[in-house]
Structures are given as structure tokens and as C-alpha cells.
Amino acid sequence: MILSKVRDPRLVTIRRGGSLTDADHHLLALWAADCAEHVLPLFEAARPDDPRPRQAIDAARAWVRGEVRMMEARAAGGHAMGAAKDLRGAPRHAAYAAGQAGAVAHVAAHDLGAAAYAIKAARAVEGESDETGRHECQWQREQLPPEIRALVLDDQRLRNDLCWSVFDC
Length: 169
Prior knowledge:
Oligomer: single chain
Strand content: under 5%
Shape: globular
Low-confidence stretches: none
Radius of gyration: 15 Å
Number of helices: 7
Structural class: mainly alpha
Helix content: 55-70%
Largest sheet: none
């Protein structure tokens, strides 16, 4: 469970009663796609013939460009999560990261899901450790656009417990 029971209005679009602009929603989606893509090779090494996680990441970016509708990006995210069904460890978490990235078009707060699952994927690589997860978390923070940096860092602080405490980096 990565979503709070009470939705943060900063992560709800203006047209839905929150304060999130479309521009910032797009930046969150692109950042989530970057986080997921960074660990995608962990899935692709296990399932090279399954395009669903990559398609979810591509759909998130296509949504930002206005090339697909929100429901298409969200559906691609669901299919990516389906690709994780019978997997374990790093490949499973990497597929979930891609699925969460696709879902950002629907609910912006899924951005932390993409980031958290990417960190879990990095930690789950055989022989790796929490230190690897901290490096992944730091890499993600380096990718944050300045326009959404404060929002994401505050959200990480608020939802860290829901996200397996992976944002302690």
C-alpha cells in the first residue's frame, strides 16, 4: 500500500479540487518513468520477451506528450503489474515500478510507488544490500526537476512508512 487513505491535495489536479498543475503532474509522470526505467533491465533480463513493463513506461511518457489518453496509460500500468505476477525479487519489483509509472497519469501520487518499487528492485538484486537501495534513492533524487523537488521530498517524508521506509537515504 503506497497511497495514503487521505489524499494530499498537492497531488490532486486543480480540476479535481487539488492544487497540482498539469505541468507538475507531467513532471511527476516523467520522473516516475525515469525511476522505473532505471531498474527495468532487472525485469527484462528475467523476461526479455515480455514488453508490458516497457510499454507502461512508454505510455506514461506518451501521456505527457498528449499522444495517449489517461486511461490508456493507466491500463498499460496495470498490464505491467500483471507481468510481475509469477515473479519474485528484483524482476517483480521492477515490473511493479513500471506499472506504478503508468498509473501516474491517473493518480499523481503513484509517482512514489514507481520510485519505491525501483528502490526495492535495486535492493533485491542478489548480493546487494540496503546500501544499493540508498544509492538508487539518491540517484532518483538527482533526477528530480527543481519544480517538483520540494513536493516529492516532502511526500517521501510523509509516506515513507507506507513505502517500506525506502526513502531513508
